[in-house]
């Protein structure tokens, strides 16, 4: 039985049949669909490859200096990357060995700096590259975050995107004075109201023509064209005008990750870009199809949602050269860093398990009985190609490239795998991870981009809208910088303003 999208007012591509996927034909997509590439980084040491700060090829220890970010931005724009996507985290990873010492010693997402502060410097040396910044709805008031995004949207000429997170860490909650995180679905309810208030500030506080700069009447802004937002909700109260005049996009491009029922519902309502992961294209295809269908049921065009998956390539001129490069990188990997990161994100202290024994599969085993079903599943889910799964092997796996799709080979080999994810899972783009920085993206530009361009995946070899906003380049639509009409934030527009 084939699953169809339910809203016939929008285009539908049914490709999920039972539990398998029917690939979308290459000749239909090549030259018509543009693969979007984001560089996946973090303003800190040890993002997803732990210990590489020891590698002479790696520059992650220089992230507290502007030259790293300035040169990276110029590199990514030269390579026609869609965006630089900046992850973020609060607190420290303190589950492994019951301490934050392993994470701090190995440089596992530590030290970590504020991602917002580096955007202006990068915007000054680029004209099209977009900037996606992670910010959490659980810890910061909507008013201050809306002001910061509007300011940066002005300074970048409309190239801002927000990765909306609700946090997953009680450690982070304690850093902000909370005893623990709110319950999972409650966090999404908070985030939903957070977005409603942000839309009011971004979309309805100022008319497009409020700023007149009329010296004859000594009027900078027409008072009647600016309104105070009064929001008294369950989780937030705010009474103020938005302090920033309308920026090029008003609302930044909205990214979100999370495939739980609450996360999927939130994404289907609010997100324009969704990060989705899974062990195979077939699994991811089902999640994408369900989320598109849910978006359609909410009145949105399901293909206004763009899906990205994490993808870490190790590239060389040949497959053999790429494999040799990976072996060289492995010399610097720190297993304790990998397990510290795994413990921080999963809540599992792997130090309690014998290092060279297979993880027990019995849920009543003494080492498993205190774990939740989700934790047990995460611990026992081994990547493809691993016939043995022990803490030591997990440590190696987690310390190189994170837990996303990992491919080693030439540009052609890596492009083949990307095509598989595009055709079988219907992904729109990739968050390109790294082992060494910025060398990982230099290799993408040297080995992978020419192959993707040759196959017709990168348009005419330039940005879809050169010098355009993040939203114009996301959709390839000039002069459409604002939220699309089927997006819920659109309803908050100042009456009479065009899009």
Number of strands: 15
Spatial separation of the terminal alpha carbons: 40 Å
* Sheet having the most strands: 8 strands, parallel, barrel
Q: What does the radius of gyration come to? A: 23 Å
SS class: alpha/beta
Describe the global form.
globular
Portion in strands: 5-15%
Give me the number of helical elements.
16
- Averaged pLDDT: 92
Q: Helix proportion of residues, in percent?
A: 25-40%
Strand arrangement, major sheet: 3-4-5-6-11-12-13-15
Q: List unreliable stretches of 5+ residues.
A: 1-21
Task: Describe this protein with a few key phrases.
499 residues, alpha/beta, 35% helix, 8-stranded parallel barrel
Question: Can you summarize this structure?
Answer:
The chain is an alpha/beta fold and 499 residues long.
Explain what you see.
The protein is of the alpha/beta class and 499 residues long. The chain is built from 16 helices and 15 strands. An eight-stranded parallel β-barrel has the order 3-4-5-6-11-12-13-15, surrounded by five helices. A two-stranded antiparallel ribbon has the order 1-2. The two termini are 40 Å apart. Pfam families: Bac_luciferase.
